[in-house]
Description:
This protein is an all-alpha fold. The chain is built from six helices and no strands.
Amino acid sequence: MSGIDIISPLGEEERASLINSIAGKIVARRLETPVVLFLEMHKPLSFIASQTALVTMPFFAPFIGAQGMADFSKLLRDRENIDRLITRIEELANE
C-alpha cells in the first residue's frame, strides 16, 4: 500500500496551504481573470471534477504526485473551497 489518503477531508492548515499554493501559481502566471471566470462558471460541477481528478490520478501523478492529486481532489469536493480559492486569487492579484 502506498499510503495515499483519498478519504479523510483536508485539515484547515492543509486546505489553506493548498489554496495559497494554487492561487500563488495562478497569479504568478497572470491568469487571474480567466481562472476566476472558469471557476465561477464550473462551481456547480466541483464534485464531479473532484472525482475526475481521482480517475485521472494515474496519468497526472508522475507530474504532480499522487498525494498532490488526492489533496486537489479533496479540495474540489467542497464548493466553499472554490469560493475560498477565488477570494485568495483576487487578494493576491490586488497586492
